[in-house]
Design brief:
574 residues, mainly alpha, two-stranded antiparallel sheet, 3% strand, globular
């Protein structure tokens, strides 16, 4: 692996780490109702929102009420977006000459659920399907609202660990409003200006007809790209304005814009670990979770970078194909990579987006080597524990940590504890339900797809192990609320539109409900002084236990499926 790529990776991790403490502290003040520098501007607007909506900001909710508010809000958002998509041809800024891909009822339904769950799974081409009104009023608004509601659930989960002898986890509507006004909106405005500075357009112009050098005609789409681009990354959504997503020069024109967009993906989830540590009064706990995330992130980054730099194993033995460099870019597997960014920045984007619940890609993962393509797949299978989505990443890694504590407690014959709270039989059931959700959601529909003609009909390019990986990757991405795909799968069919929509909702609501239920149970307990027999959860030993638990649980759940896909493809290639 080249020194320049290693330097790029090191700079990215260092910049992200340097922003964890200041941003994490800011979010802790926001959700704690403490004073911030934006209060004079935003407090009146916040109160106005409450008056218009009839929300009582002093009224708190228990876990069941919080869950109902979260689910109802998500479903209402999906229904509203569905209406916009179905009526877009009657709304302003619809260009029938260029928006030629029909939005069938099942595709509109899938897209609406996709954006309402922060999955942004796109079985369509943005520039030939969506009007400007759909992109901004529909998709961009959902990027804000869905991201904010996920962050609200994460805050409620933290309160369950921090509070004692109460059933209340906060007010969903207050947490969501503050997430939008104090966090997502200011960062989006700043990020949009940075992207416009780098050349990302924001306009409402008609598509441009250009004449090429050989006399041909080319249509160049326009639109308010920067407005959607930054929130899709900040809100860990990922839906591209254009079909090729971050590889399009309008979405991602420069190496600096690529760096900014990747940083935007990890910024809030990484800083949320610091928010967690501050809200529970134990900053070391937050730093430990962040360190585990970094270890797993760097491991995947180095493995993916090494395999892609090494190149296609089928060509490795051919001596005549020893291409070593092109304009200073070391040789390797350049198939599917954006030439402007090369292997290094493409791999960084692949690992960041697959870890960060944001399917905003700048290269074709379908063209990666078998092991290189397996890295983003495994990242998603681990369950959003490395940064992850807004709010979801934090409670995902803690739920996995609790699995490790339960296993450790069983080995030493003691009831597990976390932050002075006992993990009893009922709490264990919620954790087990959470842990089993992913294999129970992903594996059956994958089996259904490869066993039926409707599922196999989507394999228009590849069959065999690679075709299996494409299907497996699709459902994994939908459950992880990520949205990226291997792209060799034609998913715009009623079969895939309905099955992926079901998996998206399980990945969104089926994980949030057990997490909130557990938080409600823990909030009702009395914090106990941690005993000598308790596993210390702020030490390197616990970090090692957490990493081991992630790898073991992931392997037990998905190693057979991985063996049928990328591992078998790699072995055949050799």
């Amino acid at each position: 692996m080249s020194a320049s790529n290693l330097l790029q990776y090191a700079v990215f991790v260092a910049v992200a780490a340097s922003l964890v403490k200041p941003l994490g502290g800011y979010m802790a003040r926001v959700f704690g109702g403490e004073k911030t520098f934006l209060d004079p501007l935003l407090r009146p607007l916040e109160h106005l929102v409450y008056r218009l909506t009839g929300v009582d900001p002093e009224l708190e909710m228990d876990w069941a009420q919080y869950s109902v508010a979260f689910i109802v809000f998500g479903l209402i958002g999906a229904l509203a977006l569905y209406g916009i998509l179905r009526l877009q041809q009657f709304l302003p800024f619809f260009y029938a000459r260029y928006q030629t891909t029909p939005l069938s009822p099942d595709l509109a339904m899938n897209t609406a659920i996709s954006f309402a769950t922060t999955t942004t799974w796109q079985a369509y081409s943005g520039e030939t399907t969506m009007s400007y009104t759909s992109q901004i009023v529909g998709l961009t608004v959902q990027n804000f609202l869905a991201g904010a509601s996920g962050l609200a659930v994460g805050v409620a989960f933290i309160r369950g660990l921090a509070r004692e002898q109460t059933s209340k986890l906060g007010n969903f509507w207050v947490d969501m409003v503050r997430s939008v006004l104090w966090i997502l909106l200011p960062l989006s405005l700043l990020g949009s200006l940075l992207l416009v500075w780098q050349g990302v357009p924001v306009n409402w112009h008609y598509y441009v007809q250009a004449t090429t050098l050989d006399g041909g005609q080319q249509v160049i789409p326009q639109g308010p790209v920067a407005a959607l681009e930054i929130i899709k990354n900040l809100g860990t959504n990922g839906g591209g304005f254009f079909n090729v997503n971050g590889a399009h020069p309008y979405e991602n024109p420069t190496p600096l814009s690529n760096f900014i967009e990747m940083l935007a993906i990890v910024l809030l989830p990484a800083a949320f670990t610091n928010t967690f540590g501050r809200m529970i009064g134990k900053p070391r706990q937050g730093w430990l979770l962040f360190s585990v995330m970094v270890v797993l992130f760097v491991g995947g980054l180095l493995l993916c970078g090494w395999t892609e730099q090494k190149g296609n194993v089928k060509l490795a033995h051919i001596k005549t194909l020893s291409v070593h460099s092109l304009q200073g870019q070391p040789g390797g597997n350049m198939e599917g990579k954006e030439a402007r960014f090369g292997i290094g920045a493409s791999v960084l984007a692949a690992v960041v987006t697959s870890n960060g619940a944001t399917g905003s890609t700048n290269s074709a993962h379908d063209s990666y080597t078998p092991l290189g393509g397996a890295v983003p797949l495994v990242n998603m299978l681990l369950g959003e524990i490395v940064f992850g989505g807004l709010g979801t990443g934090l409670y995902s890694i803690i739920m996995l940590a609790l699995v490790g504590l339960i296993l450790a407690g069983m080995m030493i014959g003691r009831m597990p504890e976390y932050l002075g709270k006992k993990i009893g039989p009922l709490e264990t059931k919620f954790i087990t339900l959470y842990a089993l959700a992913s294999p129970l959601a992903i594996l059956p529909v994958t089996a259904l797809a490869i066993a039926t003609k409707h599922g196999l009909a989507g394999l228009v390019t590849n069959t065999g192990p690679h075709g299996f990986t494409e299907i497996f990757y699709a459902y994994t991405s939908c459950f992880a609320n990520n949205g990226q795909s291997f792209a060799g799968l034609n998913a715009s069919t009623p079969f895939y539109n309905f099955t992926t929509a079901v998996v998206m909702m399980i990945g969104r609501f089926g994980l949030a409900i057990p997490a909130l239920a557990l938080a409600g149970r823990l909030a009702g307990q009395i914090k106990r002084q941690e005993t000598q027999n308790a596993v210390p959860t702020d030490k390197p030993l616990f970090a090692a236990l957490l990493v081991a638990t992630a790898l073991i649980v992931g392997a037990l759940s998905f190693l057979p499926a991985l063996t049928l896909g990328p591992i078998l493809e790699h072995l055949i290639g050799r």
